[in-house]
Amino acid sequence: MTEAILLVGGQGTRLRPVTVNTPKPMVPTAGVPFLAHQIARAAAAGVTHIVMATCYLAEVFEPYFGDGSDFGLSLEYVVEDEPLGTGGAIRNAGQRLTGGPDSSVLVFNGDILTGLDIAGLVEAHRAADADVSLHLVRVEDPRAFGLVPTDPDGRVLAFTEKPQTPEEIITDQINAGCYVFRRSVIDSIPAGRPVSVERETFPGLLAAGAKLHGVTENTYWMDLGKPESIIQASADLVRGVVPSPAVPGRRGESLVLPGAQVAAGAKLSGGTVVGAGARVEAGAVVQGSIVLDGAVIGPDAQVNASLIGARAAVGARTVLDGAVVGDGAVVGADNELRAGARVWCEAELPAAAIRFSPDA
């Protein structure tokens, strides 16, 4: 049996207004809450018991996922009254684990989409007889991440959390947010206070001589910390760029959920999702976007790489490119929103209020 801890306590402030009513891991991605993809992939890799560490809007998780039986595993929930950080959350959730001190525990973040071979990571951890194993990926610009250099055998040499100077960038390998812990290591994390696994736990273990093993697998990897990342991840799941057993339909250029209406002459492409009860009017062109439940895309609107919140409305001939429209918001006809524009939940933007010059 493989047990896992799933960290889902973050507030997702960088994603607002997407996360005003919905915690980041529950944002619909390729037709289902993002967590459904993670849980389904974990179950497919042989995980049989997951402890979900929750905090922000904790009450929304259990009504959707229940006891986990629909995914073929056992699911429990631990709620933090106050945020405990990554390490504190792992320690807090560890009280629900059932394995012995030498058992392997998968730990993963609720905001990372990856094609990682989960079973392979667990097997590499056991083969290395490591105290902690970390999934590492290589990125072109590592400045926003934690750097993890390793020796030729994969042994971790150091941790540099979000380097501030060029001299600190000593590797392009970054912490990819998925780990395998020896159970006894989890039990050694201080209880009852905030702990950062990246800044305190891992450096402390390294200084104490523990064996930390890095597994570099250059697979699909996306940190869903920004709206554009969620939009891209959803499109990639729909198109089958990264696999997930939880996608509720065939892979292709679009996914139209039951109850949605797409008028004749409307065009969907690029991994677009149209949620239940949503409507796309005639002449609209929607590319690589998320249209959530009950939203309306008006006639001849153009929507590209954007997220349209639940029950929101986009007026006729409006152009959205890289925009986010919050739940229940109304964007009137003949507007043009580009380059990261965000419309807050329930806000109303009059017709022709914002236009961009072609030379801008």
Automatic annotation (TrEMBL):
Domain Mannose-1-phosphate guanyltransferase C-terminal: 252-332
Transmembrane stretches, start-end: none
InterPro entries: GMPPB_C, Mannose-1P_guanyltransferase, NTP_transferase_dom, Nucleotide-diphossugar_trans, Trimer_LpxA-like_sf
Superkingdom of this protein's organism: Bacteria
Pfam families linked: GMPPB_C (PF25087), NTP_transferase (PF00483)
Annotated Nucleotidyl transferase domain residues: 4-237
Stated family: Belongs to the transferase hexapeptide repeat family.
The name this protein goes by in its record: GDP-mannose pyrophosphorylase
